Amino acid sequence: MLGTKTSRRTMKTFTSAFGTMRSLQMLLLAALLLGTFLQHARAARATNVGRECCLDYFKGAIPIRKLVSWYKTSVECSRDAIVFVTVQGKLICADPKDKHVKKAIRLVKNPRP
Questions:
Q1: Residues of the chain below pLDDT 70
Q2: For 95-109, what is each residue's pLDDT tens digit?
């Protein structure tokens, strides 16, 4: 009778340990899948961050007195461009090779008093 109780107790312990091991495996699998999904989602989102590209250049005179800042478009864009920001918040796409654009950049960097 003593041997039967011991084997049942051993069986319960083994079953319990096996169940715990299975739970840990499932938890690890879920964590790995979640990590992979989050990494993929973050990478997909990162491709669009800061990707404002100019499709065409502004053809008129650049309103130098209304410019407050400028920045270059992303290297991922098919066309190199300088984007000027006006006092009203409007964005003007310009050709970085144009001499008027280079002058406007200098004036925005070093405004006259």
A1: 1-19, 35-51, 112-113
A2: 999 999 999 999 998
Rounded to the nearest 5°, which phi and psi values hold at 72? -90, 150
Question: Identity (one letter) of the amino acid at 2?
Answer: L
Ramachandran quadrant class, 74 (left: phi over 0; alpha: psi -120 to 50; beta: rest): beta
- Which pair of structure tokens corresponds to residue 31? 């964590």
List Cβ neighbours of 53 (8 Å cut-off, separation of 6 or more). 73, 74, 76, 77, 78, 79, 81
- 37 neighbors 74 (Cβ within 8 angstroms): no
List the structure tokens of 91: 């964005």
DSSP 81-106: -EEEEETT--EEEE-TTSHHHHHHHH
The pTM for the full model equals 0.54
Contact (CB, 8 A) for 71 and 94? no
